[in-house]
Amino acid sequence: xxxxxxxxxxxxxxxxxxxxxxxxxxxxxxxxxxxxxxxxxxxxxxxxxxxxxxxxxxxxxxxxxxxxxxxxxxxxxxxxxxxxxxxxxxxxxxxxxxxxxxxxxxxxxxxxxxxxxxxxxxxxxxxx
Length: 128
Hints:
mainly alpha; Transcriptional regulator
């Protein structure tokens, strides 16, 4: 069997697991993110007098935007390492037939164009 066939089978097995079993795989990272949202939002409350609820929402939305950008980058990386676009879509709970709609930058790679910078690039640059 090919790696893509093995991956497709594994993704199908994961999708068939009950939600609580799937959540167990990302519970710990989520707890870290939740703690980070609370910590960062407290700085906004302190520095700007923003209400805690809106401060948490503001931070969480920025994290969502960066996480979306990271998902796009990881999809490109997976395809560049030989993973099928169908499996990339499956890994994001998207229809395998919609890979290019879900990840339009993959079309750029297919056509030999280098995709432009993404939000994740700016965030990573800020860590240097």
